[in-house]
Amino acid sequence: MEFKKYLTEQCAVVEQSLARYMLTEQGPLAIHIKAMRYSLFAGGKRIRPILALATAEALHAETKHLLPVACALECIHTYSLIHDDLPAMDNDDLRRGKPTSHVVFGEAEAILAGDGLLSFAFELLTHPDVQQGISPVNQIRMINLIAKAIGPEGMVGGQSLDLAAEGQTIPFEHLKLIHGCKTGALITASVQAGAIFGKATEEQFAALTRYGMQIGLAFQIVDDLLDVEGTTKDLGKTAGADVSRNKATYPAFFGVAETKVMAGEAVDAALTALEFFDAKAEPLRALARYIYERNN
Amino acid sequence: MEFKKYLTEQCAVVEQSLARYMLTEQGPLAIHIKAMRYSLFAGGKRIRPILALATAEALHAETKHLLPVACALECIHTYSLIHDDLPAMDNDDLRRGKPTSHVVFGEAEAILAGDGLLSFAFELLTHPDVQQGISPVNQIRMINLIAKAIGPEGMVGGQSLDLAAEGQTIPFEHLKLIHGCKTGALITASVQAGAIFGKATEEQFAALTRYGMQIGLAFQIVDDLLDVEGTTKDLGKTAGADVSRNKATYPAFFGVAETKVMAGEAVDAALTALEFFDAKAEPLRALARYIYERNN
Q: ipTM of the predicted structure?
């Protein structure tokens, strides 16, 4: 399989779906919708939606009616970036190579653009199109898993822990908890959403959850590495921001070389989790390697 | 019916449910959960949850399994207050007679407390308890209606319009749109959630929606009046804030006397919408009058 081609094609599918399902700038709400669209269409890698789609494919499912869910995952991810970048939070001016939302639209509208995207994600998760590919009971289970993953015990909680830990000396276990909540939970939930949609058996669901947790871990370790080794140009966000904020990271704990080994181990564990899946899981396997090799 | 007793009892039921379903302060996430609880348990009137419960009652439904939904509506309302009060938004220091979230926990944690409550609301809307009282298809329909009501074309969009209109001269139609989105949508959705849970017929659903829209309107008109006539002590928030911000309001358009007449007309229209409901709808009728007569 030519993975680059796959990635480009899937990315295009997600872009088209976002364009189809997202509100358009018109009427009195044009400014608000413009702010939401500005960050949503800022050239993200669309990893979470692609993970959901690839997981459903690995289970031999037709993914058309999963597309609103895939879009919802990207709306959630985008909302989290907008709020993380706010002056009161990480105070970042640059994201995906463009000025951040609050720089362009002001702080108030940036907060609301995030709130709007988060609410809109749940419109998409309950969109009538989704029901054509999943039973209502499973749809509710899927929404529940996603809500838990991004809430106080997941992504939002992780961001709160991350802010509280800034400048503090924290044990490695605490760093693992922050990473798991802040980044790992939504990545795992994206895989789980695809698994539920693809009618995974209990065993398959458990294996895919392990896969999701391991690539979530790999993703965050590589993020830490890129902050040390990447350039602002490649990253599209400020390089060295973790170091300058004195943040606890994998390289700070273990050094760069050992951290790379750990990222590789997480990817290996993710691949092992997929050992009983057939060739339809190739995109998932390639995505695990891609997360390790990416440079932004 | 003794409405005051009913209100006190229902309020207690909601408080107990919130205490039951809300996360408790423990473990590493204690600060985040503390911030969510601080605003959630700050003595709100619980009008939205009570409206949902009273609507289901009006349809002769057993409301026990609607309680997580009722709590979700209050979480959403509370999140919207926390974000509205932020320095970048209305910059209010006082809410329900207590310092606002950002004053107590700082701006970053206030933003996250709001985000956490919004996400948690969808955990509650998909809570297993709810499924015991509603079909999964109707549950999804209910979540979809709520998500729409609070998203870019509802509450969040209304807040964006409200901010954009500050200090501007806007036509009355635009004020109506702002009010309808910002306040009316969630109040109407609370009634609709109760209606779906109570298995309303199409006619009943339409009538209850009309009721919801009219009390939503009355609620906002009275809010405008209280800002002029109320005291900071009664309101628990800064009186005269609209006037000092030069905000478009009903009294600014029509004067106090005419505005009172309009609020009364909205309540009358709400009562008319309920004409084909029996005595089980008495609490809904009393709630409409209460919204008109309240002083905070």
A: 0.95
